[in-house]
Design a protein that fits this description.
The chain is α/β, with parallel strands linked by helices. It contains 18 helices and 14 strands. The chain starts with a strand and ends in an 11-residue tail after the last strand.
Length: 440
C-alpha cells in the first residue's frame, strides 16, 4: 500500500514513521524545504522518545521518504492523509482550516484512480463532507472517498500510543474505503486493537469530546486540590481513592498549574465555539476553560506568597518549561503565563528545561537560561518546579538546598514529599497537601 502523508509536523511525522514500520510505503510531504532536507538525513526536528531511531530505520529500508513535491506522491497513493495544522483562529476560537483547504486544492489535480483521502488533523464536525464537496467541485471526474481518522497520541509516548492504541477510530461511509482502512490497520489486529467504524461526524466530534473530557478531569482535580488545602485533606490520597473506581480511572487526576500543549486549549475552544453555533452550548466545558485560565494566574500569586509576599528583586529558579515532560513542546505551556507574571512583579528568572530551551528562548527572551537544574538554582531565593521531568524527581534535595541562597521550594507538580523537603531545611509549598501548601 502506498501512503501519502501531507504534513511533517508532530502528528504527520509520528504517523508516517509508524505506518512505514507496519511495512507500508510512505511518502511524507512538507512545504518546509529545510525541514524536509533534515528529515532526509534522519534528523528529527521535534523531541519524541524513540522517533529518531524509528525514522532512521525506515529511511534505510526505503519504506519512508520525504519530499516537498506533492504531485508524484499523490498520483501513486492509495491513501492520502491530511496532517496539517488546524490552529486556533484568532478572534473567534474556531479551528483554522485554511491549511486543510489549501492542501485539498493542491491534491485535486494529481488524483489518479480510486483514492482515500483521510484527515488525521483535528477538524470540526462537518469537515469531511466539506472536503468531499470541494474535491468534487475541483475534480468532478475523480474517484475518491473521504474519511476521518483522528489521532489520540500523547506527546512523550506517541509511538507506544500509535502501536498499542486503546482503539482506532474511523469515520467512513464508503465500502471500498473501509476495506482499505481495515487493511491499513491490520498489523494492529495482532494486538487486538479494536477498529471502530462510525460516521464522519461522530469521529470528528469524538476527538474533541475526548480532549474536552480529559481537560475537565485536570480542572476538576485542581479545584479539589484547592479544597483539600482548606479542609486538611491530601489531594493525592483523594485522587488515588477515586481513581480506583473503574468508572473514573486514575489518569489525568494529578493537580498542577493547568493543562497546556498543542491540543487541549485549541480543541476545548473549538468545541465551545461549535456548540454555541449549534445552539447547544456546553456550559460545563466553558467552565473548564475558565478554570484553567484562572489557574495559571492564581499559581503566580501562590509563588509570590511562598516567597514571603513579594518576588521583587528575588532570583527564582524555574525547573521545567514545556507543558509536560518528555517533549520539547512549549505551546500554551503554563510557564508562558507564570514566568512573565513573576518578571512583571520584579523577579529575576533563571530557568532550565531538558528539551524546551530551543523554542523557549524566543518565547521567554528575558529569562536567564541555564544548562542544568543546579545551575538554575545557584544563588536563587526560590526554586519552582513547573514541569515534572524525571531528572527533577532524582534531584538530591540537600544538594539543591546548598546551591540556593534562599530556602523556598515551590513544587507545582507534587514530585517531592513534604517531610523530605522540610527535613533538608526547605520552606516547602506543594499543591493540595497538608503542611505543603500555603505558608501565609
Amino acid at each position: 500500500m502506498n501512503i501519502c502523508m501531507i504534513g511533517a509536523g508532530y502528528v504527520g511525522l509520528v504517523s508516517a514513521a509508524c505506518f512505514s514500520e507496519f511495512g507500508w510505503t510512505v511518502a511524507c510531504i512538507d512545504k518546509d524545504r529545510d525541514r524536509v532536507e533534515s528529515l532526509k538525513r534522519g534528523e528529527v526536528p521535534i523531541y519524541e522518545p524513540g522517533l529518531e531511531a524509528l525514522l532512521q530505520r525506515n529511511l534505510a529500508a526505503r519504506r519512508l521518504s520525504f519530499s516537498s513535491e506533492l504531485g508524484p506522491a499523490v498520483a501513486s497513493a492509495d491513501l492520502i492523509f491530511l496532517a496539517v495544522g488546524t490552529p486556533m483562529r484568532r478572534g473567534d476560537g474556531h479551528a483554522d482550516l485554511s491549511y486543510v483547504h489549501a492542501a485539498v486544492a493542491e491534491i485535486a489535480p494529481h488524483l489518479a484512480g480510486f483514492t482515500v483521502l483521510t484527515t488525521k488533523s483535528t477538524v470540526p464536525v462537518g469537515t469531511s463532507r466539506e472536503i468531499a464537496r470541494r474535491l468534487k467541485q475541483l475534480r468532478p471526474d475523480a474517484d475518491f472517498a473521504v474519511c476521518s481518522n483522528p489521532e489520540f497520541l500523547r506527546e512523550g509516548s506517541a509511538i507506544q500510543d500509535f502501536t498499542h492504541p486503546d482503539r482506532v477510530l474511523v469515520g467512513c461511509e464508503d465500502g471500498r474505503a473501509r476495506e482499505i482502512m481495515e487493511r491499513l490497520y491490520k498489523p494492529l489486529a495482532l494486538r487486538n486493537a479494536p477498529i471502530m467504524f462510525v460516521s464522519p461526524e461522530s469521529a470528528e466530534l469524538a476527538k474533541y469530546a475526548a480532549n474536552a473530557f480529559l481537560a475537565l478531569k485536570i480542572s476538576f482535580i485542581n479545584e479539589i486540590a484547592d479544597l483539600c488545602e482548606e479542609l486538611g485533606a491530601d489531594v493525592q490520597e483523594v485522587a488515588s481513592a477515586i481513581g480506583k473506581d473503574r468508572r473514573i480511572g486514575d489518569k489525568f487526576l494529578h493537580p498542577g498549574p493547568g493543562y497546556g500543549g498543542s491540543c487541549f486549549p485549541k480543541d476545548v475552544s473549538a468545541l465551545i465555539r461549535t456548540a454555541r453555533e449549534a445552539r447547544a452550548p456546553l456550559s460545563l466545558v466553558e467552565q473548564v476553560q475558565r478554570v484553567n485560565d484562572e489557574r495559571k494566574i492564581a499559581l503566580a500569586s501562590r509563588i509570590e506568597r511562598a516567597a514571603g509576599g513579594s518576588v521583587r528583586d528575588k532570583v527564582i529558579a524555574v525547573l521545567g518549561l514545556t507543558f509536560k515532560p518528555s517533549t520539547d513542546d512549549m505551546r500554551d505551556a503554563p510557564s508562558l503565563v507564570l514566568v512573565p507574571m513573576l518578571q512583571e512583579r520584579g523577579a529575576v528568572v533563571r530557568a532550565y528545561d531538558p528539551q524546551g530551551r530551543k523554542s523557549g528562548e524566543g518565547l521567554l527572551p528575558s529569562v536567564v537560561w541555564c544548562n542544568s537544574a543546579l545551575e538554575a538554582a545557584t544563588a536563587a531565593d526560590v526554586a519552582v518546579v513547573v514541569t515534572e521531568w524525571n531528572e527533577f524527581r532524582a534531584l538530591d534535595l540537600a544538594t539543591l538546598k546548598r546551591a540556593m541562597r534562599g530556602q523556598v521550594l515551590v513544587d507545582l507538580r507534587n514530585i517531592y514529599q513534604p517531610l523530605d523537603a522540610a527535613g533538608e531545611g526547605f520552606r516547602y509549598t506543594s499543591i493540595g497537601r497538608p503542611n505543603g501548601s500555603r505558608q501565609d
